[in-house]
TrEMBL record:
Coiled coil: none
Membrane topology value: Multi-pass membrane protein
Primary subcellular site in the record, as a coarse category: membrane
Annotated InterPro entries: AA_Transporter-Related, Na/H_Antiport_NhaC-like_C, Na_H_antiport_N
Protein name: Sodium:proton antiporter
Record-annotated Na+/H+ antiporter NhaC-like C-terminal domain positions: 144-421
Source superkingdom: Bacteria
Amino acid sequence: MLTNPVVISILVMTVLCLLRFNILLAILISALTAGLVSGASMIDTTNTLITGMKGNLETALSYILLGALASAIARTNLTAILIRAISNVMSKKATYLVLSIAAIACLSQNLIPVHIAFIPVLIPPLLPLFNKLKLDRRAVACALTFGLKAPYVSLGVGFGLIFHTILMRELGNNGVTVSVSDVASVMWIGGASMLAGLMLAIIFYSKKREYIGSDSEIVSDSLNASMSAKEWAVLAGAVVAFGVQIYTSSMPLGALCGLVTMIVFKGIEYNKVDEIMSSGLAMMAFIAFIMLVAAGFGAVLRESGGIDELVSFASALSGGKLGGILLMLLIGLLITMGIGSSFGTIPVIASIYVPFSLALGLSTPAIILLIGVAAALGDAGSPASDSTLGPTSGLNADGNHSHIYDTCVPTFVFFNIPLMIGATIGAMIL
């Protein structure tokens, strides 16, 4: 087993990730390691990796176009206006305020897909209110991370459509044919588990907490913005993108139609189109390439011939269905913590988990749930994840919030543990 190419390559990738080595290079080196250990030449391994990358081409295109869409929205006052409108009805009670922030964060993944771009607009101006209420910011960090993760885990819309589509495609690549609706029919369990974690976090962090400089104020002029023709045009583009995506189940087509609508109605100035596209590339290209290379890595693992051996060994080691489920979830947690991306993790773990799950006799819904949750595990709590970096960027605007102890640790505890419990129970029942 110590010479198994899959085991060695995963160990190499894990060590490199723990050493904070560049994720893209870590996956490439791990893929070459798997090929060389299996006896393939470096050229053949590279060719297999490049061929396998085509499995995530649609996803990469989706991310780049979605990045351009988010960039266009971010250049207007639309997000600030929406946030101001919602902020006006926010409760001054700490619990309801945290829940309101979680709801706003959910919109950033589905309705207006700007991902973490809304956080610097919303959170810094609210810090004086947090301080006045003596609100523990760890609860807010959990609310933001919930909104950045739960929607794409459980709902097949916006970023969720990308996540569910990758999951569907990688299951198919490994011999389990499902549809996006099949994925959505079970992944709600992941969202429900995270909701339970959010409620527990709010209760646990309900005690009042003092912060240094609690009388300081952070002013945001953007919250005084108003709607203009540009904002209406961008809003129309966002609605078109959302509608086309729902109707066609195609995120690239939806994002493209949304961008064209914005250009036609002058939400994006014609001479700024290149700038918007470049900004979108800068925002999303890295994660898009991670997903491409991860798909190639999965192809190399399948071609290495080590998966069958690993599955037989893991099946014997697990001691049955429950042990196998826990083993898969723990491996998924470790890999995702290192990569920092749920989306990029799926191709890597699906090539191992599908045959392992089939060997354990798990049903197709159980396999969907396990791989989906295993990929999502670790995104909350990973120091390298947008789901933790985003909340910290807003909550630490006055220097009173620790990325590791106030964001990563709370989100790790209150989301990864409920996800593991929910996935284990769900997989055993389904």
